[in-house]
Specification:
This protein has 3 helices and 5 strands. With 140 residues, it is α+β, with helices and mostly antiparallel strands. 22% of the residues are buried.
Length: 140
């Protein structure tokens, strides 16, 4: 049991590291309309989400978001980024609102560096944005 918890915690920390996953270019390429589902002319819809936790002080802040579906999580991440205004490094966790434990309901992780203070904290350029899916579906 202890090894399983340690493994899950290690996976969560590794997910937050987000090695090599950049989301700095928000615009799509090719002939698709921005926000359109690939292979479709139908615009993708940002799922309903709720910010359930958000640090408001410090140069590194955690934001936890809950969703009811695992669809279009990248759009949820982009919408949450648009709400962040203070200069800091934001660690964004997107979780399923139904079922599972705090370890298995994580669907995606993101990191967003906002402003000079965030850049100084992260050692990365301001505006750096990283996003990585962590799970495929909401647990039952």
């Amino acid at each position: 049991m202890r090894a399983t918890i340690a493994t899950v915690l290690l996976a969560a920390v590794a997910g937050l590291a987000l090695v090599g996953c950049n989301d700095t270019a928000d615009s799509g390429s090719g002939s698709s309309k921005p926000g359109a589902v690939s292979g479709s002319n139908k615009p993708a819809t940002t799922p309903t989400y709720k910010i359930t936790e958000q640090d408001t002080t410090g140069s590194q802040r955690t934001v936890i978001v809950q969703v009811d579906t695992a669809e279009n999580l990248d759009l949820v991440y982009k919408a949450v980024k648009a709400e962040l205004t203070d200069e800091a490094v934001y660690l964004v966790g997107i979780e399923c609102s139904t079922g599972g434990s705090s370890y298995d309901r994580r669907l995606a992780n993101g990191r967003y560096v906002l402003g000079a203070a965030g850049a100084a904290e992260a050692g990365l350029p301001a505006g750096t944005s990283e996003y990585q899916p962590a799970g495929e579906k909401c647990p039952a």
